[in-house]
Design goal:
It is a single chain. The chain has 359 residues and is an alpha+beta fold. The chain folds into 3 domains: 3-122, Beta-Lactamase (2-Layer Sandwich); 124-201, Signal transduction histidine kinase, dimerisation/phosphotransfer (DHp) domain (Helix Hairpins), CATH 1.10.287; 203-359, Heat Shock Protein 90 (2-Layer Sandwich). It has helices at residues 4-10, 15-28, 47-57, 65-68, 72-84, 124-159, 169-197, 210-227, 246-262, 294-297, 309-314, 321-331, and strands spanning 32-36, 42-45, 88-94, 99-110, 113-122, 205-209, 231-234, 241-245, 269-277, 280-287, 335-341, 345-353. The strands form 3 sheets. Strands 2-1-5-4-3 form a 5-stranded antiparallel beta sheet, with helices on both faces. A 5-stranded mixed beta sheet has the order 7-9-10-12-11. A two-stranded antiparallel sheet has the order 6-8. A hairpin with a 2-residue loop joins β4 and β5. Bound molecules: adenosine-5'-diphosphate (ADP). Adenosine-5'-diphosphate is lined by residues 255, 259-260, 263, 287, 289-290, 292, 300, 306-308, 312, 317-323, 346. Residues 255, 259-260, 263, 287, 289-290, 292, 300, 306-308, 312, 317-323, 346 line the site of adenosine-5'-diphosphate (ADP).
Length: 359
């Protein structure tokens, strides 16, 4: 790697040529650069700084830094650069706009006078992703620990003598099996979600007979529906097609219909339908269950978000089903949405473009 200054001198570039090139580079970079003079007034800034800080504050040149950015650490760092020639790196948080910057502050000399420059790296997105990653890890650990604790407790009980207790040992083994299966399902869903999210799966989209697909899913879930006396209604016209990857479509609809059965009222119904609007197909899954209140509704597609964590676990949920549906719908160039009336039921709708999705 050669430094720009070396590159200019190796190529014998004259000051006259290199200066506009450097200016151009400075105006093109995404990082904001602000130069402050001895009186802490802004002397110059690049385009990125103007876009980041001037929209609200008007022109930057001539303003005091404190009028533009109110942050004590930032001012102290600039003061030390100006007075003591100190180089520093600080974190800057602009609370109102929820922005975060890593700022590098250093002294620079312009026409023999002391100035200081601050380079602002916007780390808002990186921080946000890091927070999501940490939350995800902590959720996974928590979700795995619960069944694991239960398995260990029942194994200990059996070891302590319950193995000889003819009345209860089979029941304890059943609990162990149930919890192990839950961990298995959870790990399967986590792996599935991470593959889908990485975008590494290739869709094999073609015309799929939706009526037949829904019938097949109903057959697979009929046992569960029967247990709760839930009527499964396929309102998709015979011979109706949608353009999708058959396996992924089945996965999306299975998750939605399974939820519609699980969260339904006893003797309720699940109705699957298809409507077409503006070159788009909308597959709806409507239930007659407890519904979802408005505050939960907007978070329902987040990973591990559940309106009732304990209940979801009890009925075998992982909290990842809807996140998987969301990512699969998007992979198809579509979306998933929900509307709900608490006490009456919910309708989930998968929107799919009728044309071939971009891949
Ligand atoms: P889970 O494994 O818990 O079903 P999902 O991601 O599929 O995870 O769903 C997340 C949560 O959304 C559920 O725990 C439940 O609180 C709510 N939910 C999903 N579908 C329905 C529905 N049809 N009716 C009411 N609540 C639902």
């Amino acid at each position: 790697m050669s430094l720009l200054s070396d590159w200019f001198s190796n190529n014998k570039t004259s000051e006259k040529t290199s200066r506009p090139v450097l200016n151009e580079i400075l105006e093109t970079i995404r990082e904001s650069a602000i130069v402050v003079g001895r009186d802490t007034r802004i002397v110059a800034c690049n385009k990125a700084a103007y876009n980041a800080f001037a929209r609200k504050n008007g022109e930057l040149e001539g303003k005091r830094l404190s009028e533009v950015i109110r942050d004590l650490h930032l001012h102290e760092a600039f003061r030390q650069a100006l007075e003591d020639g100190k180089i520093s790196d600080i974190e800057l948080e602009i609370l109102l706009e929820k922005l975060k910057y890593d700022v590098h502050i250093a002294p620079i000399e312009i026409d023999k006078s002391k100035n200081a420059v601050g380079i602002f790296y916007d780390v808002t997105q990186i921080e946000r992703l890091e927070k999501v990653r940490q939350e995800f890890l902590s959720n996974i650990s928590h979700e795995l620990r619960t069944p694991l604790t239960s398995i260990l407790a029942f194994v200990e009980t059996l070891e302590d003598g319950a193995i000889k207790d003819e009345e209860n040992n089979q029941r304890f083994l059943g609990v162990i099996r149930k919890n192990a299966q839950r961990m298995h399902r959870l790990i399967d869903d986590i792996l599935e979600l991470s593959i889908i999210e990485s975008g590494k799966i290739a869709l094999d989209a073609k015309n799929v007979n939706l009526h037949n697909s829904v019938d097949e899913i109903f057959t697979n879930l009929s046992g569960k529906a029967k247990e709760r006396k839930i009527k499964l209604v396929n309102e998709v016209a015979e011979g109706a097609f949608v353009f999708a990857d058959a396996v992924r479509l089945e996965q999306m609809l299975t998750n939605l219909i399974d939820n519609a059965v699980k969260f339904n009222a006893e003797k309720g119904s699940v109705v699957v339908g298809l409507t077409r609007k503006n070159d788009k197909d909308f597959i709806s899954v409507a239930d007659t269950g407890e519904g979802i209140s408005a505050d939960h509704l907007q978070r329902i597609f987040e990973r591990f978000y559940r309106t009732d964590r304990a209940r979801s676990r009890e009925i075998g949920g992982t909290g990842l089903g809807l996140a998987i549906v969301k990512h699969l719908a998007r992979l198809h160039g579509g979306e998933v949405s929900v509307s709900s009336t608490p006490g009456k039921g919910s309708t989930f709708s998968v929107e799919l473009p009728q044309i071939s999705p971009k891949s």
